[in-house]
Design brief:
Blueprint lengths: L1 E3 L6 E5 L2 H12 L7 E6 L5 H12 L13 E4 L8 E5 L15 H4 L4 E5 L12 E8 L9 E8 L1 H4 L9
Parallel strand pairs: 3-6, 3-7, 5-6
Antiparallel strand pairs: 1-2, 2-8, 4-5, 7-8
Length: 168
């Protein structure tokens, strides 16, 4: 994993394999706590679920972390004393938090780490404090494993977080 120069607010990384994406999730999990919202965006196949798999391992949750595309959301309870992981795939949902209300994310948020794939324009109303992770990959007919990851911390919760530990 290689750090790339960035603005003071964003942290940018280059990831060159699925194993490194999972490892990034493991490192990021150490920064997470109950009440955190992580929004993931990126093209199909960018590595959003692979990153979330690493988060789940790092948080020590039960169950295999797989894409929740057809079930919309999966809850992975903690195997220890940490928070559960709520993994949401908002791809098939329309716009706005109203359509997501049935998921009760606002109720789950204080006690859980919520990771939402494809959440832009849908879950921002949950909290001002969130971490937005954008994963960019080459599109088209390519086997290129390189991903450019941009982490943008938003709100007071993330203002003091040291995302630099992710580049180590």
């Amino acid at each position: 994993m290689e750090a790339v120069p960035h603005s003071p607010v964003e942290t940018r990384l280059t990831v060159t394999s699925p194993e490194q994406m999972r490892a990034l999730g493991l490192k990021l999990a150490k920064l997470l706590r109950a009440g955190d919202l992580v929004m993931l965006s990126g093209e199909l196949g960018a590595g959003k679920t692979t990153l979330t798999r690493g988060l789940g391992e790092g948080l020590g949750v039960r169950g295999a972390v797989t894409s929740p595309t057809f079930v919309i959301a999966r809850v992975h309870p903690s195997l220890g004393d940490g928070p559960p992981l709520v993994h949401v795939d908002a791809y098939r949902l329309g716009g706005g938090l109203d359509e997501m209300e049935d998921l009760d994310l606002d109720v789950s948020l204080p006690d859980s780490v919520i990771v939402v794939e494809w959440g832009e324009g849908k879950v921002e109303e949950l909290t001002d404090d969130r971490l937005h992770v954008q994963i960019h990959r080459a599109v088209g007919d390519t086997t290129d494993e390189v991903r450019h990851v941009t982490l943008t911390p938003l709100g007071e919760r993330w203002a003091a977080a040291d995302l630099g530990v992710l580049t180590a």
